[in-house]
Amino acid sequence: MKVVTYNVNGIRSAMSKGFIDFVKKENPDVICLQEIKANYEDIDEKAFTDLGYHCYWYSAQKKGYSGVAIISKQKPDLVTKGCGHELFDFEGRVIQADFGDTSVLSCYFPSGTTGDIRQDIKYQFLDHFMHYIQTRSQALSLGEKYHNQKLIVCGDYNICHKEIDIHDPKGNKNSSGFLPEERAWMDRWFAAGMVDSFRILNPEPHHYTWWSFRANARANNKGWRIDYISVSESLKSQIKQSGIYSNETHSDHCGSYAIIE
Question: Could you tell me the end-to-end alpha-carbon distance of the chain, in angstroms, rounded to an integer?
């Protein structure tokens, strides 16, 4: 299974910049999209179905905001929209597709960059999402690991986990997305039985998935790695390849991929 995750910063905008050609070239089995910023009726779904994909969209109630999707060659056994939280479901932040004993999620974690209120909402999401995943994984308690579950949790987490994941860790130590509390949550996430599919095969620095539009950041590779494909421990040995599409420019993010056999 080749899985791609991509915050497209507007699906219609990305498609106008050659996103469909990218999909044809890479030919993934599953595509997880975040920040689609469109309702179903405004999306050219035929461009995907003509390539043999099944499409599942979960838009925010607010037009032109947030939203996630899963696009897959194989029709899922079950698609679940939402994560059981009124606000986060209103904002269209989580969608899950089940393929046999494997669950794939596309998630768009809140950003806290606009101030304290949204930062608090981000922390609420992190707490709720951890509980949601462990509940979905049939964990008996919040502290129990879920090593035997087959989970692939894709998305824009809006957090850089370690100093290697951000171009200027000292200068951003007080920035949302690199705060100690957020990074500690990532520590707990990976300690609870999840694996960073990119970092396990790519230990070297200077790999990022998002760049500010300001100060020529992308050209100078002054970026942040905030997009992840996390897989459960039970899939760790099956990660055969992973990488970042740093040269693709359909968004202020770029896509990431993992090949899991």
Answer: 6
Pairing of strands 210-211, 102-108: unpaired
Give a three-class secondary structure readout of the chain. Answer: CEEEEEECCCHHHHHHCCHHHHHHHHCCCEEEEECCCCCHHHCCCHHHHCCCCEEEEECCCCCCCCCEEEEECCCCCEEEECCCCHHHHHCCCEEEEEECCEEEEEEECCCCCCCHHHHHHHHHHHHHHHHHHHHHCCCCCCCCCCCCCEEEEEEECCCCCCHHHECCCCCCCCCCCCCHHHHHHHHHHHHCCEEECCCCCCCCCCCCCEECCCCCCCCCCCEECCEEEEEEHHHHHHEEEEEECCCCCCCCECCEEEEEC
Look at residue 136 in the predicted model and tell me its pLDDT.
72
Give the residue numbers annotated as catalytic, written as ranges: 156
Tell me the per-residue pLDDT of 99-141, one tens digit each, with 9 for 90 and over. 998 999 999 999 999 899 999 999 999 999 999 998 876 543 3
Q: Say if residue 117 is exposed, middle or buried (CB neighbours under 10 Å; 0-12, 13-18, 19+).
A: exposed
Assigned fold of 2-260: Deoxyribonuclease I; Chain A (3.60.10)
Span 192-223, pLDDT tens digits: 999 999 999 999 999 999 999 998 999 999 99
Q: What's the chain's average pLDDT?
A: 94
Give the amino acid at 247: N
* Nearest alpha carbon to residue 118 among 182, 58, 39: 182
